Amino acid sequence: MRRREFIVLIGGAVAACPLTGRAQQSEHVRRIGVLMNLSENDPQTLARRTAFLQALEELGWSEGRNLKIDYRWGEGDPDRHRKNAAELVALAPDVILAHGSPIMRPLMRATRSVPIVFVSVADPVGGGFVDSLARPGGNATGFALFEYGTSSKWLELLKQISPNVSRVAVVRDPDQPSGGGQLGAIQAVAASLKIDLIPIDVRDEHEIERAITAFARQPNGGMIVTAAALAQIHRSVIIALAARHRLPAVYPGSLYVVDGGLLSYGPDPVDQYRRAAGYVDRILKGEKPSELPVQAPTKFELMINLKTAKALSLALPPSLLARADEVIE
Predict the structure, then answer these.
(1) Do residue 211 and residue 277 come from a single domain?
(2) Alpha carbon distances (Å) from 20 to 13, 23, 24, 213
(3) Which of 67, 86, 107, 192 has the most CB atoms within 10 Å of its CB?
């Protein structure tokens, strides 16, 4: 290489370096708020947050480079949900990710302008969060928890794993709008299965213990735990009571089975966080939540804890074990 060509080449490289540095420094940082109903140290929190961040990374977003994320943890406390919602809205984020109806209600009261992507909301229309599933119409859209018809499968599964069950306690949150719909779907199949249903309201740990203990005094009982935020928060108590009173129980999500519950059937919550990252990305790039349809779950999980089944002296049908997505031994 001749001397003049070498000088020109080096000079061009030196000139390009400051430009590259300035381009990196000027990259616009966007802000996301994340409202979750669990505690920060809950293993499910870690799994969901990791899935969300990994999906964002694949779409070109990363914390510390072009993204700032503010987290708030609700731990099932309504007062904390209201405080967290107000705090995040005051930070003026570009979009908020919110988990569940108990968080969405105070959040929607706090803002009708900040874009919101929700996950695990049982009835977005009934809750007043969107105008319709196809055209949300406001500042919120996201991923519905399930269709009510899914709830009937819980009772069918319970009867399959414990044919002698004739009385079933249905654990629900009476203040959650979706509770009535879930109970209604279960009631629709109860008569054909010759099952008497006894609703048990979830408000605090002591009420749960009193109600389940009273229910368990009579024989041939089983239990269904509906998709309720308070039930999830108090899941360790519910699972312990089911074991103590030898109640076969079906739960709405895998985290119950991981913690010792017998069987669960429901949408994969981690998958919803992964998919939510796609909506967050589209909103950050200029699309409006009012034009993004609410999506139903696409991935469901059947999980069984064989150790719990053995403790209850239950012989599970081989056909059911073959259908399970995961079996804990």
Answers:
(1) no
(2) 10, 5, 6, 67
(3) 107
